[in-house]
Batch of 2 targets.
Target 1
Amino acid sequence: MFWEQDFLAKYRQHVFVCINQREPGSPRPSCNADGKSHLQVRFKQAVDAAGLKGSVRVNKAGCLDQCEHGPTVVVYPEAVWYGHVSETDVDEIVASHLVAGCPVQRLLLAEGCINTGSCEHRPPKT
Ligand code: FES
């Protein structure tokens, strides 16, 4: 069946960088408050500089629903979620995770926060 094919054959990994921007005063924060997408651009530069162009794809992402932990980045296919990522973290993520295969532990989102409505950092539903 077609879905059993290796759809990631072209790219070994995809790095999804949230570039969502919300209106000021929104109830949830956004990862790209100034709308300039500096973090995503920085990832593209670092991936290219590491010689990974063609094997690692950096993608812009809309809201990944981890807003309270943003800026948020997720790497697939291994589904490693990073939170509070800044431009100064990018070279470490590229070198440690994307080149050497060791996710950056200090930036990992807690399992109890990922894709769950019970995350203690989310605002209560009204
Ligand atoms: S705005 Fe980035 S995860 Fe929601």
Target 2
Amino acid sequence: MTENTPQNTRAGFAAIIGAPNAGKSTLVNRMVGAKVSIVTQKVQTTRFPVRGVAMTGQTQIVLVDTPGIFTPRRRLDRAMVRSAWSGAEDSEVVVHLVDVQAELASRERRASAGEHRSVQDVQTIIEGLKASNRQVILALNKIDGVKRETLLAVAHDLFETGVYSEVFMISAGTGAGVDDLMAKLASMMPDGPWLYPEDQTADLPARLLAAEITREKIYLRVHEELPYAASVETTAFEERPDGSARIEQTIYVERDGQRAIVLGKGGEVIKWIGKSSREELEDILDRKIHLFLHVKVKENWAEERGLFNDMGLDFDV
Ligand SMILES: Nc1nc2c(ncn2[C@@H]2O[C@H](COP(=O)(O)OP(=O)(O)OP(=O)(O)O)[C@@H](O)[C@H]2O)c(=O)[nH]1
Ligand SMILES: [Mg+2]
């Protein structure tokens, strides 16, 4: 410790888990106050745990954004779900984030069948949490546009499962209720030195961050036509003497038709993806970026060990 290390500091990990699309990455970005994890309207956007660092007073909360938990089928799905649970295991506290709008929609559908059950993934997660014996906070997300009494009913039903110590109602989108949740998490962090420098917000290597930002733009632009089928690899990242960086990336898709979609007529789509990604990277990395994108068909990109290694995922689960 250096001489200017402040006294009475606290620090620890808080994992955000939940079904795909619950708003976990949006929440982590909101609490950190910077973009550390990509967000799209598509399920299964986040593929590996991403850390974001939030400071409140003398307390540092290392938020762990995790991939959505669902019933996995493919190898990549299995590895993602496994990594989400391990993110939870390594944390002081777990926040189970539930998309209350999806929950309500599911309840309406089931009510007509005489059932009163949650979205399947939420139930799976509750079972996992019961087995894990961890301190868990329930956060109902996307409360914007939902009636209060409806919210209370959902909160009540979920709380009855007995796995949660507390319930918060928030909107990661608007920020409503997020400060209260932050304060609670801060109060649960153990005494100890900060784990990251005070001004650091994320720890993703630049190559991986750049690949994630491009993947976000692909999803934002062609999410309907490309269910789950793209991956981005940064193949070169060179710092130039003038302070700029030259980044080369390959976008992998599974079929020729998908390649055509990512390129677009006259290259219009890939141009948009490249421009959006470059602009955001310039913003985040605070320098001029030269970005070069290639699109390749590789039928089984999701079965390559190297891809898993790059993301820190376990290939053999
Ligand atoms: N209305 C509303 N939308 C939200 C809110 N929070 C997140 N969203 C939207 O929900 C969608 C999914 O958000 P993400 O943050 O990517 O969700 P995620 O849980 O990280 O999803 P995966 O990584 O796929 O598991 C995006 O379109 C968000 O803009 C909220 O509080 N209100
Ligand atoms: Mg996410």
